Each structure stands twice: as structure tokens, then as C-alpha cells.
Amino acid sequence: MAQAPFQNTPHPSSHREGKDLSKAAVAWTIVLIAGVSFAAASAFKDSQNRGVLEKAVERTAVGDRNWFPLDATPLPSLVLDGAPLTPAAKQPETMAEVSMRIAGVTEGGNYRLYVPQERAGENAETGGPSWYVKTGPGQFLRLTR
After folding, report:
1. What residue ranges do the domains of the chain occupy?
2. Is the pTM for the entire model greater than 0.85?
3. Average pLDDT of each block of 10 consecutive residues along the chain (145 residues)?
């Protein structure tokens, strides 16, 4: 009488394959723990340096809330490189804040000085014949030496 073919067939996975599978599982577990540890250490380091990492540098007048007070008497003095700056106009001009580039800061660091974008490439550092100080949202007063 013939036997059924499945009765004497050995089990498809041998004892050796089981050991290889458990070694792979241990290796993946170690890699997973190392990855999570690295991520936690990186997050901790970033949280300790949050002030440096989240510092946004704006090169335009957007967001500058330190406005030059036109209604103050006497007007605060503005000095750049040892030379006083005086208003060249009585009323501020309306200009787009995104088009005004930072050219410098007054001595004492009280106010930022700006030049229009079209002048920023040629003489942004020197400011040329005039600079602007922000007096309000979209308002800039022209200054000269």
C-alpha cells in the first residue's frame, strides 16, 4: 500500500533557519534601539540650543517694531560712524517694507538704518547720500549727514 506523500515530508523550516531568524531579530532590535536613542539625543541637543537654531535673520524692514518717534521732543539723536544724521524731510515717505534693506544700525544700536532695494547692491554699507529710519508701518524718514 502506498503512503501519502505528506506523512514523511520533513518540516520546511529546519532548526538552523530558526537560529538565523532569531539573530536577525536581535540585530534589528539593536538597530531600532540605537536609532531611537540617536533621535532622542538629537532632540535633547536641539532643545538646549533653541535660541540659536530658531533665530530668524531678516534683511528687510519687515518686522522691525523699533520705530523712530517723530512726536518726541527733542528728537532722539541718530549717529552713524561718529557723524550725526539729520532728517532730510519733515514727513516720512510711504515705502514697501520688503523693498527696504538694512544698511546699518545707529550708534547705541537704537535704530536700524535702511536703503531702498534698488540702492542696496551698489552702496548698502555706506548708505550713499541718505539713509532711512522706520517711523511706523511702511513709513520711512530720509536722513542725511
Report:
1. 15-52, 78-144
2. no
3. 58 60 88 96 90 76 87 83 87 92 86 84 60 93 89
